[in-house]
Structure formats: structure tokens, C-alpha cells
Amino acid sequence: MTKPNPDTLTPETIVAFLADIFERRGGEEYLGEPVTMAEHMLQGAYLAEQQGEPEIIIVAALLHDIGHFTSEFGTFSMDDTHDKHHEEAGAAVLERFFPRLVVDCVRYHVAAKRYICATDPAYFGQLSAASIHSLKLQGGPMNPEEVREFERNPNVKEIVRVRHLDDAGKMAGMDTPGFAHYASMVQRIVDAHCKRTAA
Questions:
Q1: For 84-118, what is each residue's pLDDT tens digit?
Q2: Residue 82's pLDDT band (boundaries 50, 70, 90)?
Q3: Using the 8-state DSSP alphabet, how is residue 125 labeled?
Q4: Which of 37, 82, 139, 192 minimizes the number of CB atoms within 10 Å of its CB?
């Protein structure tokens, strides 16, 4: 199990750390879906790229589920009876190196599913069995107060966009580039953020 010590990661090593996760753990099953974990995240990034999204959205889609590998509780299975909060685990690793928009897309992509279920009646019917199971563990659709609170986030549109890319990235047999294709893009986002925060 990958259990990173945030103190050992730097802007120069975070991308290699993420690449290593994709290499070593990416072949694991993704939540009962017909794709592996790496295929799922790479599909989200590839779809974002094909649809002309900016690099920051492509990177957010690529990394949204990284917490499945960095959570001390391990990855999700259909036998789970408690949520493992992978979104918080992922955000905790990324927040030192990535801008708030990327971190918010990671931290709130689970909340976004609950939000869309509450605001778009047709959305629930599009969810896979695994996604419905995890939705139950995560609290089900938001109540009106939770919806209002979620909509206060300045990145709400981008978070919802990444959530839809997350939902789309479950296609068996889809060809996508590997992590190496996105590594320089990820590094650019890290470098730009770290340069701004150091100024």
C-alpha cells in the first residue's frame, strides 16, 4: 500500500511519485467497473483533452481518484459497508503542489455526485451499480442545505465538469495515452502553482 509522507514530496518529485502509482497500482480493479483504475483516470483525462478542456481540467480529471491509492483504508470494493473517503486522501497529497481548482475537483468529486443527484433527476439513472453502491455509503443525494453550501464553492462548475468526466471514464477497451503523455502537463500545473505561492 502506498502511504506517502508529505514531507518527502517536493515539486520536483511529485510527478514521478504519481507516475509510479499509475505504474504499480494502475492495473487494479476499479470499483467493480469494466476498466482498471489507471484506465478510468486516463479515460477521464483523454476525454477532457479531446473535448478541448484546459490543461488544469485535464490534470484534475487525471488525478481525481488518486486517493484510492493513497488512503490508509485501501481501495473501494462492492463489499464495503463504510465510505473510505478517498477524495480527502487524494486532496491531502495534492494540496501542497496543485492549485485550489485541481484540489477542489479531487476533494469534492464525491460531493459532486451527491449534488448532481439532487439537482438533475435524470442523473441517477445513468449511474453504474458500483457508483450507486458508493453513493449510498457517501450519504446519498444532497439535501437542500447541502446543495446551497456546495454551490458556494467558486469552482463548482469545474468540479461538476470533472465529475461528468469521471462518470464517462468507464469504457472497456478504450485506447488512451499513458500517464507519460500527461506528465509534462502535470508538471506545468505544479510549477505554475508553486511559482505563484512562492512569490
A1: 467 898 999 999 999 999 999 999 999 999 999 99
A2: very low
A3: G
A4: 82
Beta bridge partners of 29: 36
Side-chain-facing half-sphere of 29: CA atoms under 13 Å: 8
CA dist., res. 176 & res. 70, Å (int): 24
Q: How far is CA 60 from the centre of its chain?
A: 6
C-alpha distances (whole Å) from 63 to each of 43, 56, 151, 163, 188 are: 11, 11, 22, 12, 14
pLDDT, tens digit, for every residue of 30-56?
777 899 999 999 999 999 999 999 999
Domain residue ranges of the chain, discontinuous segments joined by +: 6-198
pTM for the full predicted model: 0.88
CATH superfamily, with its number, for domain 6-198: Hypothetical protein af1432 (1.10.3210.10)
Residues constituting the chain: 199
| Predicted local confidence at residue 155, as pLDDT | 98
Kindly give the interhelix angle for 37-50 and 179-198, rounded to the nearest 10 degrees.
70
Whether 27 contacts 114, CB under 8 Å:
no
Determine how many CB atoms are found less than 10 A away from the CB of residue 130: 16
